[in-house]
Design brief:
Elements: E1 6-7, H1 11-22, E2 31-32, E3 38-43, E4 48-53, E5 69-73, H2 74-79, H3 81-89, E6 93-97, E7 119-120, H4 124-131, H5 136-145, E8 150-154, E9 160-164, E10 167-171, H6 185-198, H7 203-217, H8 230-236
Parallel strand pairs: 1-2, 5-6, 6-7, 7-8
Antiparallel strand pairs: 3-4, 8-9, 9-10
Helix pairs in contact: 4-5, 6-7
């Protein structure tokens, strides 16, 4: 597994690189420069706020060979459209993601790479905002109509909606004893989906595995740092033989 991104050359940047390396992530594609961007999540009982110091840089290096699975923001998929198209031709599974649009524009131009996505994974707010509807199921189907093979809309405690041409499936959330911190739950779900698809599993199974990973994540404090490893998921019995 490799990560392409930009990290700072300060102590925080070193912490990020060391943390990634400790998880066995290939850091050879990281670009180092400037100060590390830092986001603090303020989680409350019903909502959360994010405070970011420094704007994250957007410099990326691509691997020489096509990866089994690519998970990336839609903007990056579009930027490297020609390369990603070539990768898909040789079997790369592409998982597209977006972030909250603080500008409030929610321009559908942001989704121009939809045709390159095997799976697109927005949350319900993002899906409804981009499609200008109030119903997540309607939004999911409209996103499919825009070109993605499969759309998985995450709906928090309501589970996920999986939409494909002419079909929408509602998958209930995984029951948990106590939600401690939802920070990073959506990213954990996307990671689980990407891993499962890379193993050749179908989209419904991938969505379920993503929800299982997210359900473990929300029961711990710490966001991304609380996301279980593959070994821990196998040990828990969640991802047996995966």
């Amino acid at each position: 597994m490799w990560l392409s991104s930009t990290v700072g050359v300060d102590s925080l940047g070193k912490l990020v690189v060391d943390s990634l390396a400790s998880y066995g992530v290939d850091t050879s594609l990281l670009t180092c420069g400037g100060r590390q961007a830092l986001t603090v999540s303020l989680a409350g009982p019903a909502d959360r706020a994010m405070v970011t110091y420094e704007e994250p840089a957007h410099d990326y290096m691509l691997p020489a060979e096509a990866p089994r699975t690519l998970i990336a923001p839609m903007s990056i998929i579009e930027r490297y459209r020609d390369v990603v198209s070539t990768w898909r031709e040789v079997g790369t599974v592409v998982v597209g993601d977006v972030g909250f649009d603080a500008s409030g524009a929610w321009s559908q131009q942001d989704l121009s790479a939809m045709d390159l996505c095997d799976v697109f994974v927005p949350n319900d707010v993002e899906a409804c905002s981009y499609t200008r509807v109030d119903d997540a199921a309607v939004a999911a189907q409209r996103l499919v109509d825009m070109g993605a093979d499969t759309v998985i809309v995450t709906c928090g405690a309501q589970g996920v909606l999986l939409a494909r041409p002419g079909e929408i499936i509602r998958l209930p959330a995984v029951a948990v004893e106590r939600v401690v911190d939802t920070t990073g739950a959506g990213d954990a779900l996307s990671a689980g989906v990407a891993y499962a698809l890379g193993c050749g599993l179908d989209a419904v199974t991938a969505a379920r595995m993503g929800m299982e990973l997210a359900s473990e994540c929300v029961q711990r404090m710490g966001g991304a740092g609380a996301t279980p490893t593959l070994a821990q998921m196998r040990l828990s019995g969640r991802w047996v033989n995966r």
